[in-house]
User: What shape does this take?
Amino acid sequence: MKKWICAVLSFCMVIGFFPVQKAYAMPEVSASACILIEAQTGEILFEKNAFEKRSMASTTKIMTTLLTIESGDLDTEFVVDTDAIHVEGSSMGLVENDIVTKRALCYGMLLPSGNDAANASAVAVAGSIPEFAKLMNARAKEIGMTRTCFVTPSGLEGEGHGSSAYDMALLTRTAMQNEIFRSICCQSEARVKFGNPPYERTLYNSNKLLKMYDGVIGVKTGFTDEAGRCLVSACERDGIELICVTLNDRNDWNDHMTMYDYGFSEVQAVTLDAPDNLEIPVTGGTVGKLRLYAENPVIVGMKEGMENQISVKVRHAPFVYAPIEKGDTIGTLEYYYKDTKITSVPLLSADSTEKAVQPELTLFDKMKQRLNAFLNHCRETAN
Assistant: This one.
């Protein structure tokens, strides 16, 4: 097994701040529960009853879609389960014997909020709705959703089914890190193929906020008589991403816009660079060390003073063997806010090295060479 070195460095290299936004007053919202967080750090910018468990209606489909995507095999066609699609409420338009793909069902869940799509996805992934609910709750536990119980894949009421605004923000933060999920929920409409035989038709997104507020990139609407109007959204500006959740909110569109105005006035975009002078020893090369760099800087939205709580972990092997090409991935940089990992980026080689022509070494010499390389790296890390 390959050993990896982890060096922990406390730092915050501030490359630049974007201009401070116009200040806005603390929001006044009509939601029974709500929360606004910065997506990278998870920092709470505003909340109201955010830790109370409540019904969350079709925002449940965020989890259903995420699990469907994570199950893979998104483009294989299959016939939808007849019992699954006979469900009340909003629909993507599935009928008996329709041929569909998991990818099409994901569009059907996130755009028109199809309960038929959610049930069909559950059966396709887990074989039944009760078994799928077990997967939902297991994934919720992984994410840290401690006030959540999933019973249905659609969000229609089931005994005990509910979550909190905070938990739904955590779920959305995870879902938006999935590029497929992210690429679907931002679309106002999409051409999707299903039927028997399959043919293209247009699905429209029920999330009006996509066209009402600049920078909104998702996520999901919801409504039941018990839950009221529910809305989960995400908005991006100057590299900062905020996530907003409202539960039982008769004025949800305006409340989300008000909270985003406030949130973006509270944070600034801070660009974090990699630590300086990162190197790794090379065994069997024409040079003894290679310089390392992170290709893309990390942008984080921060309130004043938060940058002092950023740290980075440098992870790579004790040494590498030649040959190495410029741009080869050598390790990773992991950025942390407090004790929470916010992102990781590849650590690349800034140089190339050929394999040096050397006389045949004895086994003892090879072991000695590796030990010296390892000890040198340990000394440098300690310094």
